[in-house]
Amino acid sequence: MSTRPTVKARKPLAPKRRAADMAYDRIEAMISKLEIAPGSTVVEAELAEMTQLGRTPVREALMRMVSIGLIVQQPRRGLTVSTIDVVDHLDVIETRRVLEQLIATCSARRASPEQRKNLVLCAEKMITSSQGGNLDEYMAADQALDHVNHAACGNFAAVKAVVPLVVQCRRFWYRYQNAGEITEGARRHMVLAQAIYSGNEAQAAAGASQLMDYLEQFTRRVIDA
Description:
With 225 residues, the protein is mainly alpha-helical. The protein has two domains: 19-81, Arc Repressor Mutant, subunit A, CATH 1.10.10.10; 89-224, GntR ligand-binding domain-like (Four Helix Bundle (Hemerythrin (Met), subunit A)). The protein is built from nine helices and two strands; from the N terminus they run αααββαααααα. Strand 1 and strand 2 form a beta hairpin. The protein is globular, with a radius of gyration of 20 Å. The chain starts with 18 loop residues before the first helix and ends with a helix. The relative contact order is 0.13.
């Protein structure tokens, strides 16, 4: 009696990312890292060449950035990168604090075991990169932690509201990084990650608030400098 060979089930393929999403990520990274300076004019054709993507996805990405205030549409000047207002940044953090506490609470309640583990792994990467003084690796791990946290919380409305504020904070950090202490920033992220991992909602909210305390202190150092 013959037997059929065992066929292993294929893992489902990851969904292909839209070109507009890829364009958004690449342009946002250039703006956050100040490779495209605040106040500078945005030229669609140049961005299409820089991102190696077509003008249609670049245009869609720019319109998304207009909607969150990262790009400003001005009469006769066209599109420009928004400037960084140091004092107004305190309002960004005040608003972000409320949303981050909500997101952390939801994540502590809803995150899967794998997501809880990945949050801690991301925080560990932040600590390692901060000790080596590698800002780009630190920020990449920070962004990865945000992605896991946002997916884990299951609150789309809160995530949609907080993402523009996170982008503003990232750009602010790159602009004034000399005033920051990334080892302390990494430690605060670890406190947050471990609180979510534990499933304790009150501790998770407190961890998010402590992280916002750190960002507020960083902003005030910039203002007072």
